[in-house]
Write a structure and sequence with these properties.
Helix content is 77%, strand content 0%. It contains 15 helices and no strands. It is globular, with a radius of gyration of 18 Å.
């Protein structure tokens, strides 16, 4: 039963949400970690993310009955009404933990809940859905900055994450059918815009170095190569594998933002979140 609930929550991918918070905190404090303030934000982010994942499967129940009958809800391992209550509890817990961190965090958590409901219940299968998902990640990043009033720089630093997740979400719509090969070009453009945005923000702030610029470009090139391989052999299985890789690549993306705007040693701390995520991903699906 525990394994079924972990699958419903997309437990492996929750570490990508935690990396948003950790990276933002490292940049905000420049490495002076404030654990009493950080822990409630980590808990809030994890609860909001997993609550959104559970709610996603609740709304997708009819589709999953046809296309993914082995998942926890359509298989009957978890009753659908239990999943709805569980999602509500997780979202409420996320808001409550955010409230412990202050009013700013509370408002951001409430904003995330609204976007989750709009995405899962209304816009998921529309073109606007990808923008809403990108906005969820953007607000999650700001949640990590919420210990202090948000400055213009704090509002712009997560923009690469917004662009990246928007592009990733567009590609994820092809996981089931793999009908529109050209979406890979759109996603690749999004990856390039992510890199340009990060380099541009770092240059404007006067904090990016030549070697960190090189690392950003190298990472973008590696993702572009993977997208090209998926383009050449376009199938649902290849798209699913590519989406899984891109989801976990959110953690290195966060680490790159720490490299540019925060303490260099913080990169290792953020990248360490890949380890538990990858271990869990060997036992259950991510997307």
């Amino acid at each position: 039963m525990l394994a079924s609930y972990l699958q419903l929550m997309r437990a492996p991918a929750v570490f990508t949400a935690l990396s948003n918070i950790l990276a933002a905190h490292l940049i905000l404090t420049q490495g002076e970690i404030l654990w009493p303030a950080l822990l409630p934000l980590l808990g809030s982010s994890a609860a909001l993310y997993t609550g959104g994942m559970v709610l996603n499967d609740w709304f997708d129940y009819a589709v999953d009955l046809q296309q993914r009958p082995g998942r926890p809800l359509p298989s009957g391992r978890i009753p659908r009404h239990h999943a709805l209550v569980f999602a509500g509890l997780l979202l409420a817990c996320g808001v409550g933990l955010a409230a412990l961190a202050g009013a700013g965090a509370l408002y951001l958590a409430l904003g995330i809940v609204v976007l989750v409901l709009v995405y899962d219940g209304v816009l998921k299968r529309t073109g606007a859905g990808s923008l809403v998902m990108g906005a969820c990640r953007y607000l999650n990043w700001l949640l990590g900055f919420s210990l202090l009033p948000l400055t213009p720089l704090a509002l712009t630093i997560p923009l690469p994450v917004f662009i990246y997740v928007t592009a990733l979400t567009l590609l994820s719509r092809e996981e089931e059918s793999a009908r529109n090969r050209s979406i890979l070009m759109v996603t690749a453009t999004g990856m390039l815009l992510t890199a340009c945005c990060m380099i541009g923000l770092g240059s404007a702030a006067g904090v990016i170095s030549a070697w960190s610029t090189g690392i950003v470009l190298l990472g973008t090139g590696l993702l572009g190569h993977r997208l090209w391989l998926t383009y050449r052999a376009f199938s649902p299985e290849r798209v699913q594998a590519c989406v899984k890789l891109l989801i976990f690549a959110i953690i290195p993306l966060d680490a790159l933002l720490v490299l540019v705007f925060g303490p260099a040693w913080g990169v290792v701390l953020v990248l360490a979140l890949l380890v538990p995520g990858k271990i869990l991903a060997r036992m259950m699906y991510v997307t």
